[in-house]
Write a structure and sequence with these properties.
The chain has helices at about 30-40, 105-120, 155-160, 160-165, 170-180, 210-215, 220-225; strands at about 5, 15, 20-25, 45-50, 60-65, 70-75, 95-100, 125-130, 135-140, 145-150. By secondary structure, the chain is of the alpha+beta class. The strands form 2 sheets. It has an 8-stranded mixed beta sheet. A hairpin with a 7-residue loop joins strand 4 (about 45-50) and strand 5 (about 60-65). It is globular and about 50 Å long.
Length: about 240
């Protein structure tokens, strides 16, 4: 994605976010999340370490591209508990933590920080996290937001902490598969829809008997009956 730039009358760059740097999710089982995202989606593990400033919390990053990641945060507390600093534990495993938007340079990071402040919204930073610099602010409905800037991709050799690996009971073989997920070649015939067991992740758009019906319906029928490709506004001139 290209960087969109705004310039004021003095020619100073006012950057806008150009993508998602990372989406942070709460988890009670970071190993299971890493295993799922690396095996099922082929995303490479790039970081697993203690989250600075939050004792007992660990942080993991799996790669979508060199400047876009899914992040997981695992804490030691149970739902509804409060730590010694008064911070609430994650409200729900699998729940939303924060959204970090991406900019391409430190200059843009500072410009966007000042743009946010100019709208009357407090923005804290930049804070240097090693593989990125970030500013933090809030949005409507208590949305937690971040702007992040990385000068290079995360180096897994530097950011996967052996202590956290050991505490999460990740074996050397498992770690290898997380860092280098198996290649997948699409077969000539579509893979048959698996029928879920009691613990299989399923899409929550459908529930109960409706979910069973959807999973037993062919891909062709799903496409023909559920697709809604027509835009709400016609762009074809008469």
């Amino acid at each position: 994605m290209s960087t969109i730039e705004y310039r004021n009358t003095k020619g100073v760059v006012m950057g806008s976010a150009n993508g998602v740097h990372h989406l942070a999710l709460y988890t009670e089982n970071i190993k299971a999340q890493i295993a799922f995202f690396t095996d099922v989606l082929g995303a490479e593990l790039k970081a697993l370490y203690w989250l600075h400033g939050m004792e007992g919390w660990c942080h993991g990053f799996v790669k979508l591209n060199d400047y876009s990641y899914i992040a997981f945060m695992q804490g030691p507390k149970k739902e509804g508990s409060v730590d010694e600093k008064g911070a609430l534990a994650p409200p729900k495993a699998g729940g939303f933590g924060h959204l970090a938007l991406n900019v391409s340079s430190r200059e843009e990071l500072l410009a966007l920080r000042d743009r946010i402040r100019s709208r009357g919204v407090p923005a804290v930073g930049p804070i240097n996290h090693g593989f990125c610099e970030s500013i933090y602010f809030g949005g409507p409905e208590m949305l937690q937001l971040e702007i992040a800037c990385s000068s290079c991709a995360i180096d897994e050799h530097a950011w996967i902490d052996p202590e956290v690996v050991a505490l999460e009971n990740i074996s050397e073989e498992q770690l290898r598969t997380y860092i280098e997920p198996a290649h997948f070649a699409r077969p000539p015939i579509a893979v048959e829809q698996p029928q879920p067991g009691p613990t299989t992740p399923v899409p929550l758009l459908w529930q109960g008997d409706e979910l069973v019906r959807v999973l037993r319906t062919s891909d062709a029928v799903i496409t023909s009956t559920m697709s809604e490709p027509k835009a709400p506004v016609s762009t074809v001139s008469s």
